[in-house]
Specification:
This protein has 247 residues and is an alpha+beta fold. An eight-stranded mixed β-sheet has the order 1-6-7-5-8-4-3-2, covered by helices on one side. The protein starts with a strand and ends with a helix.
Length: 247
């Protein structure tokens, strides 16, 4: 898992428009795979990329390319470090790590992904958190990936023992950032540009907040933001669109 690398020009930070906080509607914790096609609403199509919305609010983008040997499933949650409260910096990034630890029905997600030869990762930024896996194109792999993403959206453990084990990994990421001149420069510019907004805080968070985070707070953050109507699912590469929508 990684933070978004430094990729914006320094001056661009001074031109960004500060967005208003995200307001979430109440949504049922319904898994993607349970939605019949009759509940799909096609929103638009641009250059072969089709966008749909499910009854539970989940947006789905399909970008099929039958010339590819692989398929990629990416789910982006519209939550990042700017949604963290005072004393909770780094929570979005910590949660990203914990969502690879598993669910009651799947077990350890990292191990299951590896068993199927899938290449996964996750990233956290100020406005979003995303998870993705790329794998050899097949109906079985795609169906499993969709079911896995649906399951961990609402059934992830988010357990204290996993938080404790991941703390060393997160500390190592912090130390790498502290030794990166480019990242330090970005942090200083952002802090100056957004003095009274969470854009001015680092995505990885303050060490004092991260090391003292309460598991109850992480679980509440997860339940609030990891909902279908706050997510965008993208499937690209080689796959059957009709079958994917049916799943």
């Amino acid at each position: 898992m990684r933070l978004k690398p430094l990729g914006l020009a320094v001056l661009a930070a001074l031109c960004l428009t500060v967005e208003s906080p995200l307001v979430l509607a109440d949504a049922p914790a319904t898994v993607v795979a349970s939605q019949p096609q009759s509940e799909l609403q096609k929103l638009t199509e641009v250059e072969g990329i089709r966008e749909y919305r499910l009854a539970n609010g989940l947006r789905v983008l399909l970008a099929a390319d039958q010339s590819k040997p692989t398929t990629t499933v990416n789910i982006t949650y519209l939550v990042g470090s700017r949604h963290e409260n005072y004393g909770e910096t780094g929570m979005a990034h910590l949660l990203e790590h914990l969502l690879f630890k598993g669910t009651p029905s799947i077990g350890n997600i990292t191990q299951e992904l590896s068993k199927r030869g899938m290449r996964p990762n996750g990233t956290t930024w100020v406005d979003r958190t995303n998870y993705y896996e790329t794998f050899a194109a097949s109906d079985a792999n795609l169906q499993w990936a969709l079911q896995m993403e649906a399951d961990r959206m609402v059934n992830s453990f988010v357990a204290k023992k996993d938080l404790d084990s991941e703390m060393t990994v997160v500390r190592n990421e912090m130390e790498r950032g502290e030794n990166s001149p480019g990242r330090i420069l970005w942090e200083k510019v952002a802090a100056s540009a957004y003095q009274w907004h969470n854009y001015g805080k680092t995505t990885i968070g303050a060490r004092s907040d991260v090391e003292k985070v309460q598991i109850d707070n992480l679980q509440a953050f997860y339940r609030k933001y990891y909902q279908p109507d706050n997510a965008v699912l993208v499937v690209s590469g080689k796959f059957d669109e009709a079958q994917t929508l049916a799943w």
